[in-house]
């Protein structure tokens, strides 16, 4: 009986680790409809490639349950520009390993923070290979309407993603 409980415990532990080899791990997206339309952001893949997108033609979003299909995610990937830079594997895995904890965080109700600033949405994705969908994990939404994820893991991921996004935007400004 003890052996059976040990095996069950091991299965549960193994299921709790997300798959770091899934195609997309993180996303940062800025959308604003005030004073003209703006939509751009980054996707970070499992190799650490940080790819930029700007004004995508037919961007796919998660459904009301928070899932985006593998085919819709692939359509989004086709709209990405070249690699902005690459994140070291150790750093990427450090933050991706926190995503499961962040997915269990309590989300605040949306609250009004600004006007006409749009929203920047910091997210992660957990891939479910059985249903072939990515589960959207909201890390933070900041802007006109803000939402906080109150898990400690989400706060650490947010700080890292915000810095990464800032660095991409700075790099793009310096190359133009």
Architecture blueprint of SSEs:
Layout: H1 2-15, E1 24-32, E2 38-45, E3 49-54, E4 67-69, H2 70-77, E5 83-86, H3 89-96, H4 99-103, E6 111-112, E7 119-128, E8 133-143, E9 145-148, H5 152-175
Antiparallel strand pairs: 1-2, 1-7, 2-3, 3-5, 4-8, 6-9, 7-8, 8-9
Order of helices and strands: HEEEEHEHHEEEEH
Overall geometric form: globular
Q: Count the strands?
A: 9
Structural class label: alpha+beta
Taking the alpha carbons of the first and last residues, their distance comes to 66 Å
Oligomer: single chain
Number of helices: 5
Task: Please estimate the helix content.
Answer: 25-40%
What value does the average pLDDT take?
Answer: 87
Strand content bin: 25-35%
Largest sheet: 9 strands, antiparallel
| Rg from alpha-carbon coordinates | 17 Å
Estimate nothing, just give the exact number of structural domains.
1
Low confidence ranges: 1-17
Q: What does this 3D model show about the protein?
A:
By secondary structure, this protein is an alpha+beta fold. It has one domain. Helix content is 34%, strand content 32%. It contains 5 helices and 9 strands, in the order αββββαβααββββα. Strands 1, 2, 3, 4, 5, 6, 7, 8 and 9 form a 9-stranded antiparallel beta sheet that branches. The longest helix is centred in the last third of the chain and has 24 residues. The termini are far apart. The N terminus is likely disordered.
């Amino acid at each position: 009986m003890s052996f059976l409980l040990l095996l069950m415990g091991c299965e549960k532990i193994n299921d709790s680790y997300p798959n770091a080899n899934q195609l997309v791990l993180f996303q940062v997206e800025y959308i604003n409809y005030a004073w003209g339309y703006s939509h751009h952001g980054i996707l970070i893949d499992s190799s650490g490639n940080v790819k930029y997108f700007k004004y995508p033609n037919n961007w796919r979003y998660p459904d009301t349950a928070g899932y985006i299909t593998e085919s819709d995610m692939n359509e989004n990937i086709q709209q990405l520009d070249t690699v902005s830079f690459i994140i070291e594997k150790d750093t990427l895995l450090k933050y991706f390993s926190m995503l499961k904890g962040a997915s269990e965080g309590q989300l605040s109700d949306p609250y009004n923070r600004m006007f006409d600033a749009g929203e920047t949405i910091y997210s992660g994705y957990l891939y479910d290979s059985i249903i072939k969908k990515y589960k959207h994990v909201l890390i933070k939404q900041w802007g006109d309407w803000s939402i906080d994820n109150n898990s400690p893991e989400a706060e650490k991921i947010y700080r890292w993603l915000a810095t990464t996004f800032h660095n991409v935007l700075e790099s793009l400004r310096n190359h133009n």
